[in-house]
Amino acid sequence: MKILRAGAAVAATAAFTLGLAACSSGGSGDATGGSSESSGSGGNTLTVWAWDPTFNIYAMQEAEKVYQQDHPDFKLDIQEMTWDDIQTKMTTIAQAQQYDQLPDIFLVQNNAFQKNAINYPDLFAPLTDSGIDFTEFPAGVAAYSTIDGVNYGVPFDSGTAVNAMRTDILSQAGYTIDDFTDVSWDDYITMGKDILDKTGYPLLSGQAGSSDMIMMMLQSAGASLFDDQGNPTIVDNAALEASINVYSEMVKDGIFTEVNSWDEYINSLVNGNVASTINGIWISGSLQSATDQSGDWAVTDLPALSGIDGATHYSANGGSSWAISSNADYALASDFLKSTFAGSTDLYDTILPGAGAVANWLPAGDSTVYSQPVDFFGGQAIYADVLKFAAQVPSNNTGVYYYEARDAVSAAITKIMGGEDMQTALQEAQDTVEFAMS
Amino acid sequence: MTSAQVFRGLREVPKYAFLTIVAAVSIGPLYFMAVSATNTSNDVLASRMLPGSSLIQNWQTLLGQQDVYAAMYHSTVNAVATTVLALVVSSIAGYGFEVYHSRNKDRLMWVLMLAMMIPFAATMIPLFRLFANFGLINSVWAVVLPAIATPLLILMFRQSARSFPHEIIEAARMDGLGELSIFFRMFVPTMRPTYAAAAVITFMAAWNNFLWPKVILVNADYQTMPMLISNFTGGYVIDYGALMLAVLIASLPTIVIFFVLQRSFVAGFTGVVK
Amino acid sequence: MTTPAALTELGDTKKSMKRPKGPSPKLSPAARRRSLTGWAFLLPAAALIGIMMFWPMFQALILSFKTGRGTNLAFADPLWFNYTRMLHDEVFIQTIKTTMLYLVIQVPIMLISALVLANILNNPRLRFKGFWRTAIFLPAAISLVSYSLVFRTIFATDGLVNDWLLALHLIDGPVNWLGQPGTARMVIILGLLWRWTGYNMIFYLAGLQNIDPTTIEAAKIDGAGPLRTFFSVTIPQLKPMILLTVIMSINGTLQMFDESFNLTQGGPANTSMTMSHYLYKVSFQNNPNFGYGAALSYVILIMVAILAAIQMKVGDKRD
């Protein structure tokens, strides 16, 4: 009896809370603390979420200046938060159905775009009526933020992959950057071993347990972890197996040094422990922090997988797009994006040298800024080259379960490197993804 | 010094050696943190163990990218408000549980204990919705309210109330003091060490709280120090010297609070154990 | 590990029930009023816990019977679908094993070290007591985000630990601490030990200071050696405190999130991931499956409650 009474006390407290909550929400449907701030009080302020002060936030600030030329009252309230935080906040807000807490514009990782747009259809505003011409973006890049033919994002940072190499180390072993241009992974490994023997430098470094490298190889062949119906294709995936084979061979031969963390990876580049790196072009920012290596770097395309249909020398890693939230001042936000990231050569001319932000917006590539030589890369006009690569990157079918599949493949790679049979490990990965989808 | 004393001194050597090793292991990582705050990013990555000359440079980098003052201010307001309110609410509850003890209150205590056994990630969304309904997103209240009443603190005060002599309460009642006055005038002053101990624990937890503030403080203008540190690691290029400086600055208040309160802290627990 | 100090309590409810202060069948008006005052004193805290913890817990319980992604949630058929689903979840089963491994290895080492250290520091003749105490406690004052960063840097392949072990010729080449399942788990355990041993030591120190020194002197006079005294006089008197720290540690370890999330990201191949980390992943990083996440959290709740109850039974036996 007494236990019952104690329970009743708790229940009463809960009921009291329930009542409070119900009253409060019933009383004023949209009573919130932060909505006035996030949706822009004066009608000419936009709130933006982004994560890198030296990169995408810097780009946004420049975009603000560009737009202010025609709209002097316009202002941005740019809030810095990591991608992880943006994802957590988006999920919490959408799950709690408090969309009025969203900012006007936020930056979304390309790989996560489909997942969020499909799970939370009320999160993003469709850009159909925005007047933005999406044909001015590479189809493969715009595809990340396109769901059922509707565009939800303006591509910002492409993540176009480059093979950046230390020409001074290559020449010690008697090679030039041209020897690594338009080659196959087989040739790449042969030369890599030679360079390792002659100079002691491994070609590559990367995070152990990360599947970035494999995913870049996979995308370069236009392959993915899912078929068109969205079913996982981790087993019997020739491109994936070829990629894993190349990767494990490189690690075993010592051409690829596995490190633990992102910090260590950057460290290996900055401290000159490796002869090259393959990653999204945004890595040039980190490379250029090693001022003592200025002039020693050059950029070329990626090796291609041998014997795989559709293999190319082009891929991408990372990349992000600007999305307009369902809570936004849509007219202002869409006009802002249309006039800046999807319409201003001036903007891209500023942020390219300022932050190494390579445009996805194709008309920007005609600008002379892109053909300027870059001293750090030995006078090579790397950005013009990167734009050429970008146009040829095969589209990557990310799908809703991309993160689950990528994690599962990462785990499989760790197991394969640890000696487990490849077929078994991939089957386990496939099972894990199928379980997650069930 | 007699030979017996020397002998005893020698016997103590292993003990001090052991303590020195333990203390070195404890402080080592903290030393690395402090030293790194004065080194360049590349030196940090290369595990340089000597102080460098980049402290001012790191400070400028940090200030250039992050509003440290605002984050320190918000962290301080949140942690102090949480600590003060938690001590009041939880101590009065702990006192109530013990001094007006009954079996039903015991059972209620048991039920309340269950609340700390569930992972926070599971209750985060409903809690967010609750605060949204109250219109409290981005407010200090949203950070403070869930941390005020914790089963941990209530139990701690309940235990220390056990060592509080009931004769004092009876005598005070005879003198015509009200129940609340007895609590504030008799109990609170006597239990100062327990309050000190509870303050250290609560302040530490509130200051370092990360997941909930980052979700409920939607507007980044209200960000706290742990959020600032996390943001600092979000970019493609990270300055590790400045990052370590931020980590050091974020750790100072909890260290200072411990230094200030540690004597009472140890003594305070003594009351709890009884 | 943000958790409970005073579970000692739970061990000795009996003691408190024996006291004549409980409600008697017939209450005088004054006693009635006081009983009401007592409830009034509890009300703010109980209401806050009810609103801030039990209400969301109740919501989570309902959620655990629903399936669907994102906001498309519907009651499952059968209702306990999420609870049976986890029986086939290889990753979750792995996280249970990993979490139990942390529990079984780390908690005893941590508590025994804390006990030994507290015993040494409790010696009245010890010099620089404040310094030792502060030094050993200090790691607990550092935020989790910060300590994960520091540990990651120290245990990097070209980090301090490898540098030193190489210099001492204890290893031939750098060890990839965070990249191998065994060593990654070891680093997490070391991190936990580093951070929480001093914290628990403070609890024991407090307990030791409460022990009447004459009981220890008496044991010495009876001819008991220091070890014997420690085990037969000190330990029994510390029991409420030991029980408290054990239950705190069980709760903290079974709900452990930050170390797994920040230090190793659960890797390699999910081998260092804890249950709470997986729960977070299921809810926030993967396709949000909040129904399943809520079910996982209730399983964790039940595991904590059972282990805590067993501890209390065992710990309470001799009283």
Automatic annotation (TrEMBL), chain A:
Keyword field: Signal
Signal peptide location: 1-21
Domain of life: Bacteria
Keyword flag Signal: yes
Keyword field contains Signal: yes
PANTHER family the record matches: ARABINOSE-BINDING PROTEIN-RELATED, SUGAR BINDING SECRETED PROTEIN
Record protein name field: Carbohydrate ABC transporter substrate-binding protein
Species in which this protein is naturally found: Demequina capsici
Automatic annotation (TrEMBL), chain B:
Xref: Pfam families: BPD_transp_1 (PF00528)
Example GO BP: transmembrane transport
Boundaries of every ABC transmembrane type-1 domain copy: 72-261
Species lineage: Bacteria, Bacillati, Actinomycetota, Actinomycetes, Micrococcales
Species in which this protein is naturally found: Demequina capsici
Record protein name field: Carbohydrate ABC transporter permease
Location (main, coarse): membrane
Topological relation to the membrane, as annotated: Multi-pass membrane protein
Localization per record: Cell membrane
Chain ranges passing through the membrane: 16-34, 77-97, 109-128, 134-157, 195-217, 237-261
InterPro entries: MetI-like (IPR000515), MetI-like_sf (IPR035906)
Gene3D superfamilies: MetI-like
Gene Ontology CC: one annotated term: plasma membrane
Keyword annotations from UniProtKB, A to Z: Cell membrane, Membrane, Transmembrane, Transmembrane helix, Transport
Family membership noted in the UniProt record: Belongs to the binding-protein-dependent transport system permease family.
From TrEMBL, chain C:
SUPFAM superfamilies named in the record: MetI-like
Record's subcellular location: Cell membrane
Source organism, top-level taxon: Bacteria
Organism: Demequina capsici
Gene Ontology biological process: transmembrane transport
Primary residence: membrane
Record-given protein name: Sugar ABC transporter permease
Family, similarity comment: Belongs to the binding-protein-dependent transport system permease family.
The keyword Iron is assigned to this record: no
Stretches the record annotates as Disordered: 1-30
Transmembrane regions listed in the UniProt entry: 36-58, 100-122, 134-155, 238-257, 290-310
All copies of domain ABC transmembrane type-1, residue ranges: 96-311
UniProt KW keywords: Cell membrane, Membrane, Transmembrane, Transmembrane helix, Transport
Alphabetized InterPro entries for the sequence: ABC_transporter_permease (IPR051393), MetI-like (IPR000515), MetI-like_sf (IPR035906)
A GO-annotated cellular component: plasma membrane
Position of the signal peptide: none
UniProt KW Membrane keyword: yes
Bilayer topology annotation: Multi-pass membrane protein
PROSITE patterns (alphabetical): ABC_TM1
